Amino acid sequence: MPMPEAPASGIRPWHGYGLGLRTEHFDAVLQEDPKVDWFEIISENFMVAGGKPRHYLDAIRSRYPIAMHGVSLSIGSTDPLDRDYLRGLRDLASHVEPIWISDHLCWTGYGGINSHDLLPLPYTEEAIAHVTARISEVQDFLGREILIENVSTYVGFADAEMDEAAFLAEIVRRSGCRILLDVNNIYVSSRNHGYDADAYVASLPADRIWQIHLAGHSDYGDYVIDTHDHPVRTEVWDLYARTLERIGPVTTMIERDDHIPPLAELVAELDQARRIGAKLDAAVRMEACA
Predict the structure, then answer these.
(1) Strand partners, 18
(2) pLDDT tens-digit series, residues 161-205
(3) What pTM was computed for the model?
(4) CB 25 within 8 A of CB 263
(5) Closest CA to 248 of 205, 213, 206
(6) N or C: which end of the chain has fewer CB within 10 A?
(7) 217, 230 in Cβ contact below 8 A?
(8) In the chain, what are the domain boundaries?
(9) Burial of 10 by CB count in 10 Å (0-12 exposed, 13-18 middle, 19+ buried)?
(10) Between the CA of residue 144 and those of 39, 94, 97, 139, 154, what are the distances in Å?
(11) CA quadruple 220, 105, 70, 270: dihedral positive or negative?
């Protein structure tokens, strides 16, 4: 199917507005043909050939572009990279032909044990060198650049040598990878650690930000948890709008992983992202004509 037209000010690949593809919506996607430009899959859920998940994936990808998003790369771990996992990821990519592949800037396990959590890294030169080398190895194995996502964090490291934005920016510069910018995670971490979310965005290389995640969180006053079980909150929409004003249009999607509503409700929420993007595009066009 044809790609949506890129906004006039676009400086990066443009794929419009998408949703995370969840099991609860398989049938609805095929029956309703929702107004969604693309879907993002959790790579690990489709790495076994055959079966119901791959049946639905094949049917849906015949209608919509697909992005692959992983949770098990563990790019920051000191364990060797899992070659069997990488082969499975490469095979799935050959089958799906995704617009891109992404994972998280974190570690998920040690000693062959997967914690099934996205654990933070120390922001040090040693960690930059370690992660950069592993990203380069992954990209060489897959034969393509990957996108790396900032995670939400709840603790800091006493020996940190820089802030998270500088850490991420330097890894991207050295490895040549791209950024999947999770705006909700920036907001969550900025509340938990007391930093300026807008300054975080301003510190990143804008041309390397190829995708944005939006999601809901749980606010407990003194701390915030990235739960993906609520609609996107007003403060995150506001940060998203300011982010686009600063860096320009970016392919955007909404994640929901728990308390998943009917598909139509998420599509309606996605329309809010479209409205914010359209408002920005209109302002850019007016400025160009002035």
Answers:
(1) 38, 253
(2) 999 999 999 999 999 999 999 999 999 999 999 999 999 999 999
(3) 0.93
(4) yes
(5) 206
(6) C
(7) yes
(8) 17-289
(9) middle
(10) 20, 12, 12, 5, 32
(11) positive
User: Residue 78 phi/psi, 5° resolution?
Assistant: -90, -5
Res 8 pLDDT > 60: no
Tokens encoding 215: 């999601």
For domain 17-289, which architecture applies?
Answer: Alpha-Beta Barrel (3.20)
- Tokens 């991420």 correspond to 168
How much helix, strand and coil, in percent to the nearest 5, is found in the chain?
A: 45, 15, 40
- Round the CA-based radius of gyration of the chain to a whole number and report it: 18
How far apart are the C-alpha atoms of 110 and 79, rounded to whole Å?
Answer: 6
Cα(27)–Cα(25) distance, integer angstroms? 6
DSSP β-ladder status, 101-104 and 66-69: parallel
Residue 109: its pLDDT value, please?
87
In sequence order, which residues have a C-beta less than 8 Å from that of residue 154 and are 6 or more positions away?
Answer: 120, 192, 223, 225
Q: How many C-beta atoms lie closer than 10 Å to residue 58's C-beta?
A: 12
Q: For 43, left (φ over 0), alpha (ψ -120 to 50), or beta?
A: alpha
DSSP letter at 48 equals S
What tokens were used for 197?
Answer: 């979310």
Instruction: Specify burial of residue 159 (Cβ count, 10 A radius: 0-12, 13-18, 19+).
Output: exposed
Tokens of 167: 């850490």
